[in-house]
Fold this sequence. Notes:
This protein is mainly β. It has no helices and nine strands. The strands form two sheets. Strands 2, 3, 4, 6 and 7 form a five-stranded antiparallel sheet that branches. Strands 5-1-9-8 form a four-stranded antiparallel sheet, with no helix packed on it. The radius of gyration is 15 Å and the shape is globular.
Amino acid sequence: MSLLCVRVKKAKLHGPPDKFNAYVTLKVQNVKSTTITVRGEQPCWEQDFMFEISHLDSGLVVELWNKGLIWDTLIGTAFLSLDSIRQSDEEGPGEWTSLDSEVLMKEDQIYGTMTPTPHQVLLDTRFELPFGAL
């Protein structure tokens, strides 16, 4: 088992500031976690999430949503392959991830995204080093 640590830092959204009331969902290996909802075109969350990962042949799906009165709308999505995530015991500055508007599916599994949007989210993703590995 590996421990995946994800810090959802902030986002850059394009559009009028009063248009967005955004939150992020993280999905990996049938587990879903969600940030709080934050208003504005540059929302800041600084929320940490941890996931126990049993195999590295899948990925982390990141979705940015706009909360609505009746239903929520997807702003953008990204797919991060688990085998591309660094191993470290220390938080990093994070990486800006561009969001796309469509997901690529194969046998009911997301394997990527396409059709870029102007929106980005800042994430710090890492696998904790095993205890005593230093």
